[in-house]
Amino acid sequence: MASPELLWAMLSEFTRLGLISFGGANLAEMERVLVLEHHWIPASVLANGFALGQVMPGPNLLAVTHYVYAIAGGPGAAVATLGFYGPTALLSALVARLWYRNSDQPWAVALRNSLLPFGAGVMLASLLVLWRSSVHDWIGALIAGCAFLLLWKTRVNAALVILAAAVIGALVGL
Question: Which parts pass through the membrane (predicted)?
Answer without folding.
Answer: 77-100, 107-129, 135-152, 157-173
